[in-house]
Specification:
heterodimer; A: mainly beta; 4-stranded antiparallel beta sheet; 0% helix; globular; B: mainly beta
């Protein structure tokens, strides 16, 4: 089956620094990827849709200048949390859709971000 | 500060019992549904899917039922095991946003 990886799996950073999270589709190409954030005991919240070769589409309330998304190739999307603050501490998960028309989502293992 | 999000309803069952997890959807045009399982600290994983031209689909120990009249899905897990403890989400393939999900806890 299709595999999506994320790197790093966890990261601890100081407040005010930026952190980059990578999402890769390992054995398939993904023109679209999705970024989610999940706080403890809560559901997945869609942050943005990453589009290869064009700008990401952000959900309402998500700051595009704070959460920079770059989808530079058909197998890689990156999420950069800029000027991170403790409230950005969360579990970040990416996904990529499978083959049309079924659109099953293949999820990465997640990245645990802790901002001190 | 604390973020606003969807807090998870919970279901607790005894090991060996059957579990039923329910889900409602809103788009009557939806034609493909997926159940995902998310274990603690991991990304969601596909469990089973169902197309709108079906009412029922069975997998290994899992069954999904679809009632299009009331726009309702259920996931049934037979002989629930401790390894089934996780959060379960249903998803409409056309909507990348997830609902609250259900946290299943299996008591030994």
């Amino acid at each position: 089956g299709a595999v999506v990886s994320q790197h790093p799996s966890w990261v601890i950073c100081k407040s005010g620094t930026s952190v980059k999270i990578e999402c890769r589709s390992l054995d398939f190409q993904a023109t679209t990827m999705f970024w989610y954030r999940q706080f403890p005991k809560q559901s997945l919240m869609l942050m943005a849709t990453s589009n290869e070769g064009s700008k990401a589409t952000y959900e309402q309330g998500v700051e595009k200048d704070k959460f920079l998304i770059n989808h530079a190739s058909l197998t890689l999307s990156t999420l950069t949390v800029t000027s991170a603050h403790p409230e950005d501490s969360s579990f970040y998960i990416c996904s990529a859709p499978g083959t049309e028309p079924y659109n099953e989502q293949f999820f990465g293992p997640g990245t645990r971000l802790t901002v001190l | 500060g604390e973020s606003v999000g969807l807090h998870l309803p919970t279901l607790s069952v005894q090991e060996g019992d059957n579990s039923i997890i329910n889900c409602a959807y809103s788009n009557s045009a939806s034609d493909y549904f997926i159940w995902y399982k998310q274990e603690s600290g991991k990304g969601p994983q596909f469990i089973i899917d169902i197309r709108s031209n079906m009412d029922k689909r069975q997998g290994q120990r899992v069954t999904v039922l679809l009632n299009k009249t009331v726009k309702h899905l259920s996931l049934q897990i037979a002989a629930t095991q401790p390894g089934d403890s996780a959060v379960y989400f249903c998803a409409d393939s056309n909507d990348m946003r997830f609902g609250a999900g259900t946290r299943l806890t299996v008591k030994p």
